[in-house]
Every structure is written in C-alpha cells, then in structure tokens.
Amino acid sequence: MAGKPRILHSNKDMIWSLIPLLAVCALVVVASGNCSVGLTGGASDDRTPAFDVTTALRADARALPFPVRLPPTPEKWKPNSGSTQPVGGSFVSNAGWVTASGAYLQLSQSGGKEEDLVSSIAGDSRVFGAGTREVGGRQWVTYTGDGKKIWITDLGDVRIGLLSRGPDSEMEQLGSSVLAQQPLPRSPS
Q1: What total of structural domains would you count in the chain?
Q2: In a domain, 120, yes or no
Q3: Would you write out the chain's pLDDT as a tens digit for each of its 189 residues?
Q4: Could you tell me the CATH number of the domain that includes residue 88?
Q5: The model's pTM
Q6: Which domain does 125 fall in, by range?
Q7: N or C: the chain end with fewer CB closer than 10 Å?
C-alpha cells in the first residue's frame, strides 16, 4: 500500500477516484432499464400514462345533464387524461390525447356557456378571440393566447371545445370526428 502520504492528496486525486465510480453507477442504471431520457415525447412513448377515455366518457354521459360524444381517434393517438369539473352553472367533461405529432389535444364538452367553457379550458392563460373557422360542417369560434389554441362550437344543448398547441390539422380531425358521432346513451331519468 505504497502511495502518496495523505497530506499530498489533492482535489485532482479525488476526481480521478470518482470517475470510475460514476462510470460503474451509470452502467448499472442503463443496464437496469429503470431510467429514460424521454426525448421523443410522442404518443407511442411508453412513458405517457394510458387512460381509458371510452369508460370515462361513457360514465360522464350517464352522469352529466348534457349529451356527451365519444369520437374515434387515430390509432397512433394515445389517450392520457380525463376529468369532470364544475364550470359556471354546469359541468365540463374533459378528455386528452397525445397525438402522433407529440402534441397534447384536449376535448371538452359542457352544458355551460361558451365564455365559461373558454375560461375553464384556458385556465390561467389569457386568450383572445381570433375569428371563426368551419370544421365538420359547423362554425367554430377560435381563441389564442400563451401558445394555446382553443376552438369552441355550440350544438345548442352542448358546447364542444378543443385545446392544443399542436397542428390545426389534428384539431380539425378531432373536431370533425366528434361532430360525426351521436351522443352516448344517458341514464334514464
């Protein structure tokens, strides 16, 4: 055990001692498969938690006082969230997907007023009216702000809202899809 006396050890010696230790730790972590960098962020990413949107929207249709629709979505879109919350004098049913482009796309359905739905979808963001557009044979009022795009259409007994930061084409696809569906069965009153 011949070496330098302890008093002659420097920070450089400590760094050279730590490098092999850190290399071994990194090798163990990578080999175990328990870590990931998460650079893809796409819908096929297994780190995106799965959510049963079909069951959630069917439950909302039975419990809420307005019609709820279940749109078919592309196979590459992964449902990852859902919620029901009060808004204005009604409720809002939310479902979200991570699309093939890696963007989050939310569908909101509410029996409340348009302004209440916009406020609920926008959260803390400030959004402003940005015009209208036609999708799925219906007029949608558009809002933008803080990088978010919100589209709302009024079907009389329900307002449908979409939220995304992704491409308009995916919002158009979901908007057309939801409008083409009949409302899910409701509980007998």
Answers
A1: 1
A2: yes
A3: 567 777 767 888 778 888 888 888 888 877 777 665 554 555 555 565 689 999 999 999 999 999 999 999 999 999 999 999 999 899 999 999 999 999 999 999 999 999 999 999 999 889 999 999 999 999 999 999 999 999 999 999 999 999 999 999 999 999 999 999 999 998 765
A4: 3.30.200.100
A5: 0.76
A6: 53-179
A7: N
Which residue do the tokens 């558009």 mark? 142
At 123, list the tokens.
Answer: 């959260």
